[in-house]
Write a structure and sequence with these properties.
Blueprint (H helix, E strand, L loop, with lengths): L23 H10 L11 E12 L2 E9 L10 E2 L2 E3 L7 H13 L7 E5 L3 E3 L4 E10 L12 E8 H4 L5 E6 L6 E8 L2 E4 H15 L7
Parallel strand pairs: 1-7
Antiparallel strand pairs: 1-2, 1-4, 2-3, 2-8, 5-7, 6-7, 9-10, 10-11
Amino acid sequence: MPTNGGRPLRYGSRSTDAPSAAGIPLLRDRLRDRLRTPLTDAGARRAAVLVPLVAAADGLEMLCFERTHEVLEHKGEICLPGGSIDPQDAGPVEAALREAHEELGIAAGDVDVLGLLDDVHTTVSNYVITPVVGYIAAPRAIVCDALEVARPINVPLSGLLSRGVESYELRTPDGTLRTIYAYHIGGDRIWGATARIIHSMLTLWFGMDGDRA
C-alpha cells in the first residue's frame, strides 16, 4: 500500500534551467567519477538499456517508446530502448546500442556514450538491467520496429524536472519497503524500472535540495 500519498519530489536548484547540450559534460563527469553499484544476482537474466539524450530545438529530450501488446513482457508500458544481453555482445554497452538500433533505428555511431548508471533489478520479470547513458547530437529519423514499438515518445527533460511531474510511493507488497517512482507527463505515465533509471540519472546530474515537498 502507498504510505505517503505519492508526494512530488524536488530536484536541486540547477534543474530550474532548461537542460541543454551545455549540461552534457557535467553528466559525463559525474558518471565517470562516481562509484557505480553493479548487481550480481546469479539467478537473474542480464539486460541493458540505452538512455538516449537527444539534442532538440527547445533543449534536451529523452527518447522512449510505448511497447506494443504483441511483445512477451511489459505490454503497453513506456520504456527505454534495450533488451537482453546476448552471448555475442561484448557487454552492456554493445547490447544497449544493438537493441536501440533494432527497435528505433538509432545508429551506434551517432551515440556518444557518457557512462553507466547503477544496475536495476526488475522483480516480476527478474532482469538485472544496466542503463547506458548516451548523447545524440544530430538525431536522424526514427525507424520503429513494428512488432515492439507502438509509438516513439520524445520526452523533454524540462518536463521531467518540472515540480510535481515525478511522484513516489512507499510500498511493502512482499514485506520489504521499496520506493516506486512514476512520471506523469504529456498524458503518459512512466513507471517501474524505467522511472527508477530516470530518477537515478536526474539525481546524479542535478542533485536534490534535500527535502520532499
